[in-house]
Structures are given as structure tokens and as C-alpha cells.
Amino acid sequence: MFWIIKFVRFFGILFFCTVSFAFCDTFDELVFRSPKNVFLGEENEFSLFVSDFSPERVSLDNAAFDSLPSGAHVVSVHFGEDVKEKSIRGTKIAVTILFDSADDFAFPAIPLSVDGRRVFAHFEPFSVFENPKEAKPILFFDFLEGGKAFERVRLRVFSRFALSVVSLSYDLPEDAIVSEVLPFKPFDVSKSDFSASPTLLCELDWMPLSKGNHALPNFFADVISFSGKKERIVLSGKTIFVESANEVSDFQSQKNENAEIERVFFDAFDETKIETAKTEDFLEKARAICEARKKEREEIPFFGKSRAKRRAIEEECGIFHQKNEPNTILFAFFLIFGALFLLLFVFLLFLKNRAAFFVLFLTFLFFFFGAKEFFLLKKSVAIFASDALFFVPEETQPLRPIPIKCAERVYVENKIGDYLFISGKNGAGWTKKESVFFIK
């Protein structure tokens, strides 16, 4: 019976080595969490939680933050013991950073020593905003459709950096008909809910009755800024060129004789237009990541090169700590050896050998991880290849800031027509079907 014990011991060690390989990315997931809003001129705390290790076993190089970009200054670094949900104990690292410029930031990875092992902690990309107490409320609008005489133009009016909008009014321009689609309703937000995203105030249908230059309605809003100051802001002087009803040309590319009129018209779009930043280089990288992930599912564990190649491309795109792909060979390994150990358990049970219960435990683990791998393989996943997400399955006002980066791995949760609902690590939204590369 000695050979049976050696057989069980050998495959027990092989099993745990395989599981360790499949789930060895624990430290790759170390991420500094940014505050909900990062403001200019204020101390902002970024925190990292290292589970299962006390502060004495976690250290940080004094020069770890020397590689931060200009405009970011570390004020303090604090280590302390913390307890997360489900009573998980560990070390919390709190880094306080002061910014002297409002910009988008993507910090490099920071090296840590955890129990003598060198690992890297990443920062989520974030944006630094002007201090809300100093931000001046503004009004702006965009156009959804139209551009010809006797054709309705949908006009949407937005506010930004306003704690409260008490009232909104507008004057009626000459030679045009205006009707309300979405009436204005007063609103206010909590100071802690500051967001740089625009707030929709109202929607109007504006129909010009003749060709030529037309003045759009002037808007007047009584607002309260985040500093608590009450003021009236005005949106006026906006003029656009309207074609005659029988002319066929591109409304947005109309060459206006008055250069200032043309500039004002396109400025109205700049606040809310969907920027098509899908460069050929970025799309090629997204496609390459998709192909590498497909191969990663089929390669032999320990020997495949697709994972390393894929991670290198993702780092070029500024994407870190992405989940690895499930593996079909790993699934087959768990399934086959689960069945073999089940037969071995029956055999040992028949011989009344005490090793049968250890074999039963291994059989359970094989089938458990096999089932987990199976369900991961069945999920519909893709690579996001766009820079626009929407609240609803239609091309309306996009989400800003966008919670999913181009070339990021996402789950496809739902489909309506040509639109897919996708979810990533930091958010979800609707996108067009052609804006993703399917892995599975």
C-alpha cells in the first residue's frame, strides 16, 4: 500500500503547485485608491490596504515616490494596522499628496517590500480639479440635431461647478419658434458630491424660420457656487448659420463668412462632444491584447508567452492589475484529476484505507476549482475599443469622466439592438457593438 500513499502525496503536491500558479497574482492587485475627488491646493489622501500582513512586515523605500510627475508633492506617508470587512486584518498605507496643477495623472507603480518580497502597487488614473470653492459656475449648451430652416434643433442647456441652480430663464429670439421639451427644475447638491461632470438643466426645440445667421436664445441662471456665493450667470451672444430647407450640405462644416460666428458655434460643441480618440495605434493595441488573451486561454500553463506579451501591451496603454484569462487546459486538468481521485477514493474506501478521506478532500478541491474555471470560461468578455460610454442604449450625452479605459478588459452583461452593456473594474455603461473586440 506504500505506493498508494506516495501516489497521493505526489499529486497532492502537484495540485497545490498548480493552484498556486493559477492564483499567484495576489500582490499584482495592490492598488492605491484615490479620493472621490482630487482638488488643487488641498491635501489628498491615497490609501493602500495590504491584507494579512502587519505594519512591521511591510516597508516602503524612502525614494519610492521620487518618480512622481511634476506638480505632485508627497506631504506624508503613514503606516497603520487596519481591519476590512469580514474581519480581514492588514496594513493600511496612507499617502497624502498635494497638487499644484489641475490635470490628468497616471502615476508609475511604487515598489513595496512585503514580508521580504518585492512587489509593486499601482495607482488608478485620476484627474485633479480646480478647488470647488474657487471654480466659477458656467452655462453651456449643445445641439442634438437639425441645422436647416423650418427644421427643429434640439438644444440642451447644462451647468457646471454650481452647488445650486435656483432659477433659469431665457429670451425668445426673433424669426424662430422655441418650445420646451424638458422643463427646468431647481436643484442643489451636497458640497461633498462635487463633480466636474455637467448637469442637464433643460431641453428646448428651437426652429429657425429663415436662412442666414440666427441668434440663439440668451439664458440667465441664478446659481450658488461651491464657495456659497450667490450670483447670476449669463449665456448669450451665440450665433449660428442656418441653411435653407432645400440646400444639401454638412451643417457642422458650413464655412461661415464671419469667423467669430464660426468659432462661437463650434465652441458650443466643445464642452460635450464625444471626442473620437480611437487612434489607429490604440486600436491596434486593443486588438493585440484581445488576440493575446484568446491565446492565453489555450496555452499550456507555465510555458505560455501570451500573458507576458499581453501585460506588456497593457502597460503601454496605462492599464495595470487586469485579471488573467481562465485556461481550458487548467480546466481539463482539474476535471480529469478530479475524476481520477474520485475513483481512487472509491478504491481506498473499499480497502478501508484511512488515506481515502484525504483523497476525498483533494477530489473536492479539484472539482471546486474546475467548476470555477468552467464558469469563468463561459462568461462573455471583451476588450473595450472606444472612448465613449452612454447612460442608455443610444448615442446621447456620454459618461464623463469615462469609467472604462480603451483597451481594458470588460464583461458583456446585456445586449439591446446594436448596443452592449459592459462593466469594468471602475464602472459600467452602454456602448456600440463595434466598439468591443470579443474574447469569448
Which terms summarize this structure?
5-stranded antiparallel sheet; 4-stranded mixed sheet; 33% strand; alpha+beta; 25 strands
Strand and helix layout:
Blueprint: H1 2-22, E1 31-32, E2 38-39, E3 43-51, E4 58-60, E5 72-84, E6 88-99, E7 104-105, E8 110-114, E9 117-123, E10 126-129, E11 138-143, E12 153-160, E13 162-170, E14 176-182, E15 187-188, E16 199-208, E17 212-215, E18 219-225, E19 230-235, E20 239-242, H2 259-270, H3 280-298, H4 306-316, H5 328-350, H6 355-378, E21 381-384, E22 409-416, E23 419-423, E24 428-432, E25 436-438
Parallel strand pairs: 1-9, 2-10
Antiparallel strand pairs: 3-6, 4-8, 5-6, 7-10, 8-9, 11-12, 12-16, 13-15, 13-18, 14-16, 17-20, 18-19, 21-22, 21-25, 22-23, 23-24
Helix pairs in contact: 1-6, 3-4, 5-6
Describe the structure.
With 440 residues, the chain is α+β, with helices and mostly antiparallel strands. The chain contains 6 helices and 25 strands. About 9% of the residues have low confidence.
Mean pLDDT: 77
The N- to C-terminal Cα distance equals 46 Å
Task: Specify the helix fraction band.
Answer: 25-40%
Structural class by sheet pairing and helices: alpha+beta
* Shape, principal axes of CA atoms: globular
| Rg from alpha-carbon coordinates | 29 Å
Q: What is the tally of helical segments?
A: 6
How many strands appear in the DSSP assignment? Answer: 25
Hey, roughly how much beta strand do the residues contain?
25-35%
User: Main β-sheet, in a few words?
Assistant: 5 strands, antiparallel
Show unreliable segments.
Answer: 19-26, 246-278
Strand order of the largest sheet: 24-23-22-21-25
